[in-house]
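User: I've been trying to design a sequence by hand for this structure and keep getting stuck. Would you show me what you'd pick, starting by listing the structure so we're on the same page?

Assistant: Good idea, let's start from the same input. This is the structure you sent:
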């Protein structure tokens, strides 16, 4: 499948809004601290019992989106498994995710570049692609082609399950990569 990045600010904003509505629907809001190597910050996480993931959308940075698999419950802090942060407009490869349109059907998909760092040894884009078992595609922007993981279409009723599949797959990959690194150290 060949996809073309969405660069129009209004279309990105509208598609992101649809994504939020799908992911926040029927969720349970909880106060949490999201954690990463850079530190932690207070957030409102939305847990979905059906998909077994939580998500946080930035209050002050609207295109900041984090996901995890630990039920927030009474935990003091939850770990971020992956993020789907994206540019507000244009094409910016520093961000891990973007919306892209399929050429023939014109369907818009949320895709991820495989950037899953987080500051831990061996957790990287190369490792992601070595172990990723989901659907992938190529994005084309000018003369640049890039392999991306296809998460799903925010307009599809299956999008929450598609997102959950990606988050759980990323959690699995991170665990495999962490174990590979530990095995090397022994």
């Amino acid at each position: 499948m060949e996809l073309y990045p969405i660069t129009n600010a209004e279309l990105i904003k509208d598609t992101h809004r649809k994504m939020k509505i799908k992911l926040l629907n029927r969720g349970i809001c909880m106060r949490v601290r999201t954690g990463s190597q850079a530190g932690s910050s207070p957030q409102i996480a939305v847990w979905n019992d059906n998909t077994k993931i939580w998500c946080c959308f930035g209050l002050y940075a609207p295109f900041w989106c984090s996901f995890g698999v630990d039920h927030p419950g009474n935990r003091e802090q939850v770990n971020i498994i992956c993020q789907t942060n994206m540019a507000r407009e244009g094409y910016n490869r520093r961000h891990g995710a973007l919306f892209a349109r399929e050429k023939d059907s014109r369907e818009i998909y949320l895709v991820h570049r495989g950037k899953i760092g987080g500051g831990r040894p061996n957790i990287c884009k190369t490792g992601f692609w070595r172990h990723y078992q989901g659907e992938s595609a190529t994005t084309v922007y000018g003369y640049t082609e890039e392999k991306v993981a296809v998460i799903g279409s925010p307009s599809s009723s299956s999008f929450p399950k598609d997102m959950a599949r990606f988050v759980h797959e990323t959690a699995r990959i991170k665990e495999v990569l962490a174990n590979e690194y530990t095995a090397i150290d022994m």
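That's my pick for every position. To get oriented when you compare it with your attempt: The longest strand covers residues 39-48. Helices lie at 9-24, 125-131, 159-185.
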